[in-house]
Amino acid sequence: MFISYAHESEALRASVKALADWLVQRGCRVLTDHAYIYRPPAQGWQTWMLGCIEQSGTVLVVCTPQLRARYEKTAAPDSGRGATYEGAIVTQQIYDAAMRNTKFQPILPDDGDEGNIPTFLKPWWNGHRFPGGYDCILRMILDGSGDEAKKIGPRKVDPKPPFTCEHERLAAEKLAAADARQFLVAMQQEFRKRFQSEPPCDAAAMVRWFAGRESTDVQQLFYLVRRALGPFPHGRHEDFQRKLAEEAAVALYCLAAMRLVDTAVARANEVRPGDYLLLVPRSERVICAIIATALFGGELHLKPVEAGGELQPEYVFEVHVPVSGDRQTEAFERAAFTAVFENQADAPQKFVEAAPLTPRERARLAARIDDIHDRQRRIALIVHGLQRVEAAAGLARNHKLPVLFPAAEVPTSEFTTKLLGMDADRLMAEIGELSICLTARTDFASQPPSVPSSSS
Predict the structure, then answer these.
(1) What is the pLDDT of residue 238?
(2) In Å, what is the CA distance from 416 to each residue of 29, 93, 259, 265, 294?
(3) Residue 27, phi-psi category: left (phi > 0), alpha (psi -120 to 50), beta (remainder)
(4) What whole-number distance in Å separates Cα of residue 99 and Cα of residue 293?
(5) CA 104, 109, 115, 116 torsion-angle sign
(6) Of the residues 91, 195, 219, 402, which has the maximum number of CB atoms within 10 A of its CB?
């Protein structure tokens, strides 16, 4: 099968990739353009697209505003040539079949509008949406594939929903906890009031919905989490529920903040000489943690540094390198070692020279980084004072370790300030508002949201 879609945003591209991966896990053979982000297919785009459509038994058409414009040729002539070409092929094949169609199936994102379905495909709209309707899309594919459906159907199906990164899995796990049920119900009730529509039906669907939002929607996501969190009543059990609700709220909040990171801008960050070196607009640890997790994966855990204090990320270290000296690589590596082990009982003396790390120290640093990664945490370094950013490339590449350089300290071009879809001061303020919500321990002014009983 083939998935046709318009490249409207990185979020849409990611959601289509998640759908494709989910279908592959269930035995489907899926063709998409995700393997050709940096290099076109050898046979050229036109031949590749035609071949994908010709050999597929089912073509899923992801209907969005730009796809409809390109399929119906109302978009600007120089935009989205791929979707325009695919639309021409689809239209012609349906026309050649005397308007009988079992191959080309329109689907919509969960929040998509039926008005985005191309006119000539509307007769075959059957209500299929994603990611909320993954199972229905699979059933539609199998129902139209004859004997092949019998071969694929009995395959063991992973009951867990697909997620595109470790942090999505973390958020779903926190939100699905039994004692966080009250918070999930409050999220769904707030969703109904805010968006005037039915909310995602469970924790996994809520997380997938968050993960598919555009950067322009993030402010509403912040409001949604904070309003649903609210104050909890006093009492030992209620305090435990509150703790689990807070953990779920923080995970969702971080997931929303990650939607602010523009991955296209990050890929264009031409001054980084290694895969894991990046210029960032600000040096605050929480902002750097959001950027690093959005781009490089892992789980992001924010915790107060002290009771009632501001939220700060785990395992994001600030590295201060002396501005003088010719041995920049050795100076950076020793400064990184000092920062990572700073709070240990046997922490090394503060950095005084650029002596190379000993083999034992290198092994110790590698073991610590690998241990943190094995726990799915995202470790990152924020570097100050390094004269040559390429001096950090070796350590970053060898350990897949994001090394971030604040733009104010390194000459940069204007795109660095566009890496975030929200002003950094405003983002810090929004995280501060969440911190205030986490310290709320007052009684409910009204009854908390009712939780359906297990028998209902």
Answers:
(1) 66
(2) 39, 45, 16, 7, 15
(3) left
(4) 48
(5) negative
(6) 402
User: Could you tell me the two tokens for 1?
Assistant: 């099968």
Q: What are the residues whose beta carbons fall under 8 Å from the beta carbon of 323, sequence distance 6 or more?
A: 385, 387
For the chain, give the number of residues. Answer: 456
CA angle 227, 231, 237 (to 5 degrees): 130
62-66, 85-89, 264-268, 383-387: range with lowest mean pLDDT: 264-268
Average pLDDT of span 304-326: 79
- E strands of 190-327, at which residues? 277-280, 302-304, 311-313, 316-320
Q: Tell me the C-alpha distance between 25 and 28, whole Å.
A: 7
Compute the CA torsion angle 112, 116, 119, 121 (nearest 10 deg): -40
Q: Token pair 């590596």 is at which residue?
A: 333
Structure tokens at 54: 């010709």
Burial class (CB in 10 A: 0-12, 13-18, 19+), 124: middle
Fold category of 2-148 in CATH: Rossmann fold (3.40.50)
333-356 confidence digits (pLDDT tens): 988 998 988 755 445 554 445 578
176: left (phi over 0), alpha (psi -120 to 50) or beta: alpha
For the chain, the structural domain boundaries read 2-148, 163-267, 272-436
Query: How far apart are the C-alpha atoms of 17 and 11, rounded to whole Å?
Result: 10
